[in-house]
Design goal:
With 128 residues, the protein is mainly α. The chain is built from six helices and no strands.
Length: 128
Amino acid sequence: MSTEETSRFVRLRVELVLEITDTGELTGAAMDQIGGDTTMPDDERAHAQASVRDDAAEALAYLVDPFDLVNGVPGVDLAQASWSSEKVDYDPASAEWDFDDEDEDFDGIGWIGEDGDRPDGEGGAGRA
């Protein structure tokens, strides 16, 4: 593909930390979703149901669909998506969870390269 063709693609990274407030409700919704999927083969359905019963993070992964994030956004088509969920030790007071500090290469306008310039060719001067 030429640069012109590949420059049409954008990688959107989203990181969420969710608190599961009702495991039973979450698991039940995932089981309903799996049970209602008429395209899922029976052996895959049994595996999915076992995974969902054992792990709330798996239940969440069955209910969240990246397509829903961009469905209806004008001028875009989802080309590829992947997602996963995992249990984490979350401490909102910890610097590890300060998403602003994590994005040191982002100046609020765009990503800053190692040379101090943004990929769009604009300079990174004035970056805090």
